[in-house]
Amino acid sequence: MTTTHDDIVLELSGVTLHNDLGDEELVHGVSFSLRRGGVIGIVGESGSGKSLTCRAILGLLPQYLEVSGGRIELFGRDAASLTPKEWTQVRGTRISAVFQDPASYLNPSIRVGKQVQEVLRVKRGLGRREAKARTLELFDAVQLRDPAYVYQQYTHELSGGMLQRVLIASAIALEPDILIADEATTALDVTVQAEILELLASLKESTGLSLIVVSHDLAVVAQLCDEVLVMKDGSVVEHGVTRDILENPQHEYSRLLISEHEQYGLERYLVEPIGEREFDYV
Ligand SMILES: Nc1ncnc2c1ncn2[C@@H]1O[C@H](COP(=O)(O)OP(=O)(O)OP(=O)(O)O)[C@@H](O)[C@H]1O
């Protein structure tokens, strides 16, 4: 398949991130392109720069951290030129994210359904009834059983996997083009983790969403992603097609990540693409 420039929804070229307080560069030249419907994985140990890279893409860096070099282009537009108001419009509607700890992104004293409904009311201007109907559809799309029942529950009544589904429903409510899943399955047990990954894959298929999947766990990335960036100490040490990296890693650190997984049989991801596979690796 040929990729034209119109297919590229996000492009990073040599992005460096600098901490003005500590006067140090934290991320040293990250480059990749994400095409419509594509899935890119960013893998690396804690502190390697994965989350900061995502925050930069989302325009959510703390004030003292800045993009000090390179360029982030979102939907053909230089992200540096976006005003705070434009960022607010872009986030949620065109690019959205889910993180590791879903409970902390939801209000414990408001029913979860209402919280998603509110996103649709405020950002899409839907009426109460329409927003509720759409929320129930979204809960169904993220495979929450009995959406009407979940709608009126509070966060403390839901499991980690259900909360992550609610958050994914909220993240896709405004039909964004890009979803960033930053360690979104890390806190979940392996079976639920597999279900959430399967959900992301099926949403990608049904909506044409582009995904950035961030994980310290190569197996998570290998399941979903066409392409992988391996990060270490703020640098991309390897970038390529997932299968090539798994079969023939060039960097010592990639080899180490792969060897850590040998006991789980990472090679299974080389033969069966997601969607054609039973998640039976618990
Ligand atoms: N707000 C911040 N202020 C200063 N330094 C930061 C800040 N956030 C992260 N860093 C530093 O930047 C580097 C990259 O951190 P980052 O959070 O991007 O790593 P990560 O790969 O996402 O790790 P993890 O998997 O633990 O989230 C680390 O050295 C970290 O200490």
UniProtKB/TrEMBL annotation:
The keyword Oxidoreductase does not apply. Gene3D superfamilies: P-loop containing nucleotide triphosphate hydrolases. InterPro entries: AAA+_ATPase, ABC_Ni/Peptide_Import, ABC_transporter-like_ATP-bd, ABC_transporter-like_CS, P-loop_NTPase. Residues 10-258 form the ABC transporter domain. SUPFAM superfamilies: P-loop containing nucleoside triphosphate hydrolases (SSF52540). It is a peripheral membrane protein. Keywords: ATP-binding, Cell membrane, Membrane, Nucleotide-binding, Transport. It is found in: Cell membrane. Belongs to the ABC transporter superfamily. This is ABC transporter domain-containing protein. Pfam families: ABC_tran. It comes from Herbiconiux moechotypicola.
